[in-house]
Amino acid sequence: MRRVFALTGAMVLAAALAAPAWAETTLRISLQLPLKSHLGQNLVLFKDEIEKTSKGDIKVEIYDSAQLYKDNEVPQAVGSGAIEMGVASLTRFAGTVPAVDIFYVPFMFNTDEMVRKATAPDSPVRGPLDEAILGTGARVLWWQAYGGAIMLGKGEPIRTPEDMKGKKVRVFGKTLGKFVEVLGGAPTLISGSEQFLAYQRGTVDAGMTGVSGVQSRKLYQVMDSITVTNHADIEFVVLVNDAFWQGLTAEQRTLIQAAGRKAEISVRDAMAKTEADAYADAKANGMTIIELSPAEIEKWRAASAPVLEDYLAASGDLGARVAKAAESLR
Fold first, then answer.
1. Could you say which of 37, 39, 174, 274 is the most buried, measured as most Cβ atoms within 10 Å of its Cβ?
2. Cα separation values, 144 from 66, 81, 253, 255, 292, Å
3. Which residues pair with 15 in a beta bridge?
4. Cβ 241 vs Cβ 78: under 8 Å
5. What confidence tier does 56 reach under pLDDT thresholds 50, 70, 90?
6. Helix, coil or strand: residue 24
7. What is the predicted pLDDT for the residue at 42?
């Protein structure tokens, strides 16, 4: 009897020693950009913070450069629970929540002050969008600033709206596609991880992205010029599967939210320097940077005005609500 008791005690002790390993929680995050990109480094900041504050209870694994999922696959992957977390361009939700494209209505958010107000967690613009996205099974943890949208040209530079006529243009959202159509171009929806090859092969004549993407994806190797239109505010969202989230302890959720908020503030505050460094890098690698005057920007704004009407027609009551909220921020 004593021997049985001793064996049982040893088994209990072994199980107790092994318990921390079983209790450990792992967050896998899918990212389409390289880890060295500013969004990748923002995830590293989150990883370091949460592993420190949780004292190793929560581990983070980052799968960058679309190793697991392309940008357009992330919302479904996270919403279904195929992966715990992922980063996706906000516009990837436009199919289920058309109102998210308020950030891609041309020149809607034309100042840094407006962008900060609109993307704040308690904003009347962001709040309803986060809530609507939750209905897909994915919860927004934080937003990642990606800067203003710029135009990329090859050969003949793009300076005026007329220069868009007849061109095949890489876009990353439906509303941006409408922007190209209104200006007489032909939009082609291409994932961020695939745009280098699209430019290299001549699948498209021009494109749009954030200038930091020119640097991290080395787009200066396949494109010649950047036109600084800043016609849209590019935002990415860091998502977590909501069913997985609800299964975490209250303490774990608090720690993750705090680390996410720290990461969000960091990436937003660093955006100006990130863009300045990217423009300098593009210029150093031979690209022509075309700065537009206020009068030239106004021509772009006027030419693209019909896009707002199309957005309102497509996004219903929620779109009207966030568009009104956006206007109130001016």
1. 39
2. 17, 22, 19, 19, 26
3. none
4. yes
5. very high
6. coil
7. 98
> What is the rounded CA–CA span in Å between residue 74 and residue 249?
25
- What single-letter DSSP state applies at residue 100? G
As given in the structure block, the two tokens for residue 275 are 């863009």
Alpha-carbon distance of 219 to 190, in angstroms, equals: 14
282 three-state secondary structure? helix
Under CATH, which architecture does the 24-328 domain have? 3-Layer(aba) Sandwich (3.40)
- Give residue 187's identity as a one-letter amino acid code: P
Question: Cα 268 from chain centroid?
Answer: 12
Residues 6+ apart with CB under 8 A from 174: 91, 94, 98, 101, 189, 314
Check residue 40 and give its pLDDT.
97
CB 176 within 8 A of CB 108: no
Mean pLDDT of the chain: 92
Query: pLDDT, tens digit, for every residue of 94-106?
Result: 999 999 999 999 9
The backbone torsions φ and ψ at residue 27, rounded to the nearest 5 degrees and listed phi first, read -110, 110
Distance CA 251, CA 102 (A): 34
Tens digits of per-residue pLDDT, 144-155?
Answer: 999 999 999 999
Q: β-strand 168-171 against 206-210: which pairing, if any? A: parallel
pTM confidence score: 0.86
The confidence score (pLDDT) of residue 23 equals 56
Token pair belonging to 168: 């095949």
**Whether 52 contacts 8, CB under 8 Å:** no
Q: How many residues does the chain have?
A: 330
Q: Which residues of 269-299 are buried (b: 16+ CB within 10 A; e: fewer)?
A: eebeebbeebbebbeeeebeebebeeebbee
